Amino acid sequence: MDGSDKIEQEINKRKWERWRARQETEREKPYFFCAPPPPQPSVLIAPQTTNVSPGETAAIEIRIDDVEDLAGTDIWLTYDSGIAEITEVQAVDFSGIAYTTTGTANNNNQMKINWADMANPKTTETPLVYARITFRAVGSAGQETTLQLEVKNLANSEFEEIDCNVSDGLIRIV
After folding, report:
1. Which of 14, 60, 69, 98 is the most buried (most CB within 10 A)?
2. Cα end-to-end distance, the chain, whole Å
3. Other CB atoms within 10 Å distance of the CB of residue 36
4. Which of 156, 143, 163, 169 is nearest to 41 (CA)?
5. What is the pLDDT of residues 116-159, one digit of tens each?
């Protein structure tokens, strides 16, 4: 081994030692793993699209999902009553819901649904069925109406508003 080989060997040895020292430092660094954020509460219509023949009935559900400490609701459903009319409303997982239906001259009806139980708030990671609503198709084949949800208020037991995502639905007459 001549002098240049010894120098090259020494350089490589020092490079390797520096690399190894960096690896030791990397292993000693603390690593933090962040948990994903909790899911956003949601209010949705299921199924999202409902096909029904003229004169027949079909049921949809308003569901509430991923909510903690839910103690009160005020949810409005707007639809075209010239295409579909409500024939039945059932409380499923929320006993004691109250609702009213109002209409306008252009067939845009609103159903206002309310519920409160401050003593027994609800928490869920799976969808709760807020209401099951049966519609009768009164329009003609090819018509459809959007089932538009408007969440006026979801509140917890401290009377604080709960933010949520909203997904509308559709009734299509086939």
Report:
1. 60
2. 90
3. 5
4. 163
5. 998 889 988 788 999 999 999 999 999 999 999 999 999 999 99
* Local structure of residue 144 (DSSP, 8 states): E
pLDDT of 105: 55
Q: What is the enclosing helix (H) or strand (E) of 170?
A: strand 169-173
pLDDT mean over 13-29: 76
Phi-psi region of 107 (alpha: psi -120 to 50; beta: other; left: phi over 0): left
**How far apart are the C-alpha atoms of 172 and 60, rounded to whole Å?**
12
In DSSP terms, 147 is beta-bridged to: 169
In the sheet with 165-167, reading across from the earlier edge strand, the strands are 84-91, 128-137, 57-65, 42-46, 165-167
Q: Is 11 left (phi over 0), alpha (psi -120 to 50) or beta?
A: alpha
pTM of the model: 0.77
Distance between CA 130 and CA 8 in Å, rounded?
A: 76
Pairing relation of β-strands 165-167 and 98-102? unpaired
